[in-house]
Design a protein that fits this description.
- The complex is a heterodimer of chains A (233) and B (237).
- Chain A is an alpha/beta fold and 233 residues long.
- Chain A contains eleven helices and six strands.
- Chain A folds into two domains: 188 residues, Isochorismatase-like (Rossmann fold), CATH 3.40.50; 33 residues.
- Helices cover 45% and strands 16% of the residues of chain A.
- In chain A, strands 3-2-1-4-5-6 form a six-stranded parallel beta sheet, with helices on both faces.
- In chain A, helix 4 packs parallel to helix 11 and helix 9 packs parallel to helix 10.
- By secondary structure, chain B is an alpha/beta fold.
- Chain B has a single domain, classed as 3-Layer(aba) Sandwich (Rossmann fold).
- Chain B is 44% helix and 16% strand.
- Chain B contains ten helices and six strands.
- Classes of the chains: A alpha/beta (233), B alpha/beta (237).
- At the A-B interface, helix 1, helix 6, helix 9 and helix 10 of A face helix 5, helix 8 and helix 9 of B.
Chain lengths: 233, 237
Amino acid sequence: MHKVVIKPEHIERVKRRSGREHTVEALHGPKTALLIVDMQLYFVGEGQPSECPVAREIVPNINLLADATRRAGGTVIWIQTHSGPDSKDYWSVYYERMTPENSDKRVEGMSPGGSGFDIWPELDVRDQDLTIPKTRYSAFIPSPSKLEAELRSRGIDTVLVTGVSTCTCCESTARDAMMLNFRTMMISDANAAPDDELHNATLNQFYLQFGDVQSTNEVVALLEKNITVAAAE
Amino acid sequence: MQNSSVLWPESIARVQAQYGTENRVGSLNPQETALLVVDMQKFYLEPTSTNFCPAALDIITNINALAMAFRDFGAPVIWLRNIVGNKDIKSWSSFYDRLTQKHLSYRREKLAKDGDGFQLFEGMDVRSSDRKINKTRFSAFARDASNIEKVLGEYGTHVLVVCGIVTNVCVESTVRDAMMLNYEVLVAEDACASSNERAHEASINNMYTHFADVTLTSNIKRLLGQENAQDFKASAA
């Protein structure tokens, strides 16, 4: 698991600018979506082309968050990268930079039905959850996206971002979500990156400029509070 | 070609493994390339501003040199400016709700169209042939944030050279989105700045490994010239 360090000076800066350490102080279940980005074999499985070993370690936290989100009346959304053969055309700048072998490997692995396409089997995907394809790093590009339409139609205003990798697909999705006016949080121990340094660089930057960063336990507690309140009403 | 000194050896190794080369952009065709200068406004460059970023003063010379090189090759120079309008406070509440009333009022006043932080800093060499684009989000490519895609379409731009401030926020968000919209992106590392040196470095490495090529101001001038020289040779032959 990553050793997460949010720098004390950043916490002080957020307190000065926002008047509080965490800008998300409560979660309303029905208005909340948990986004799980790219937890597919290609990034999670041992020996896969873009394996990120820490991705296997965050699986229990993602399952906890998904369970709490559902119980609070929120929406769990599995974001799945689709890179079919046509992606070489519509995203040519990405593929043209790769060696031909790497580019073919990616299309083979990430096409629907490909060897790296499926969601990691230890993740607890339920029938009521949504699975939404994405074709770039960010799930919100090109815009407008299916993801955004689903969120808006459900009246969701807050998104919790988890998955792999912290600094690439998760951060791009989270940045874009925030610029599309969703209250956005990255969950510190439910994202995985190639190393601690990259992971922490993203979390610190996101916390300072874009949204909130909290741990799985903190987020589950906020959701539980919401469940208790809803039950009492 | 000399590489930026802030690139980590592991980033270079990763890029080489994935792409088979350290620098993916080998030349720049001035006819399809534009320079994007991000947010070099008084709000961030005046020492009296709350949002003063001292490191931004150090990149003025390089940015002006890039702008001159682009003009020399007949390629567009585009200055991006952050702007805050009344409706943005609500339409981007996910950002503005994070500010205390004091910080919100300050930003809103200074970055309004007639605010004294909105204008480009005096040190920037802006010419009448240049283009200015206002944006209402960190990324110029966020939906409805600006008319940049339309402007680039008019110029026939497919390649962007990006510089300005701050590296890890507006520059990186703009670069990420541009790349995902299928623009080839080259970042001029020594013409970007952040108030936090470590954040600048992490951001540059992140862009380099996934979103853009990264090089130095002096190389960009050479890359523009190279393409020209090739065209010249081709037409002579």
